Amino acid sequence: MSDLRARVKPKRTLLKVALGALLTLGLALVILDFVGVGGATYLVATEQIIPGDSLTERNTRLVRVDLGEASANYLTAIPPQSPSNQRPSPLSNQRLGDVATRPLSAGELIPASAVQPSEVFDLAAIAVDFSRPLARSLIAGSQVEIYATRLLSGTQVDEPRMIATGAWIRKIETDTTVGRTTHVVDLALRRIFLPEVLAAIARSDFLTLVETSPDG
Fold it and tell me: For the chain, what is the radius of gyration of the CA atoms?
């Protein structure tokens, strides 16, 4: 009996040592994964980014992921910014650094082809109220044309005409007060179209957003 116990005890001890080593190795892998050691990190958008937006710590973060052969196509750090690292007014001509050249959705890895060193895009920010429902396909990051229909007299209206093209939707908010629903759309559009859009708003023209392809 004593010989049997002597043979079993070393086996149990060896098993405990092996299990302890495996647990230690697993814990080490978890720690390495948590701190991001042992793999490359890539830049991912944390919110909707539209063309002309600067990439900053506010709208991006680094994540660790294995991209294999595609790794060379994606950014591994935030591109260089202006000294203040802040996005200047869309109306300024300040050199900003790298900006997005196409829409980037929250959670999307940022390819190098989606940014380029450029002057600030000639975009102005404007919020427009829409009392009628918007197309369901319109979301933050959509590119749109703006059409205006002018009220002539009584129930007569003028022919709809396009007053802006190549505008981008930054955000859509819905406000419901006193049983009335209004959609507030934050738009970024080229300044050349701004006077016409502001005039249409002042005239209380009926405005419509029509989605377009970023490629035209």
Answer: 28
Token pair belonging to 123:
């975009």
HSE, CB side, 13 Å, CA atoms: give it for residue 124: 15
Distance CA 170, CA 194 (A): 16
Q: Is-contact 78 56, C-beta < 8 A?
A: yes
The tokens describing 166, both together, are 């190549």
Q: What angle do CA 88, 90, 92 make, to 5 degrees?
A: 70
**What pLDDT was estimated at residue 124?**
84
Evaluate whether 62 touches 74 at the Cβ level (below 8 Å): no
Taking CA atoms, 95 is separated from 59, 81, 90, 99, 205, in Å, by: 19, 9, 11, 10, 36
For the chain, helix (H) and strand (E) counts, in that order, are 2, 9
Could you tell me whether strands 161-177 and 180-190 are parallel, antiparallel, or unpaired per DSSP bridges? antiparallel
Could you tell me if 103 and 114 are in contact, meaning their C-beta atoms sit under 8 angstroms apart? no
- Report the predicted TM-score, pTM, of the whole model to 2 decimal places: 0.62
Residue 205's Cβ-count burial label (10 Å; 0-12, 13-18, 19+) is buried
Answer for the pair 185, 208: CB distance below 8 angstroms, yes or no.
Answer: no
Q: What is the pLDDT of residue 95?
A: 36
pLDDT (tens digit per residue) in 48-64: 998 888 888 889 999 99
Contacts of 33 (CB under 8 A, 6+ apart): 64
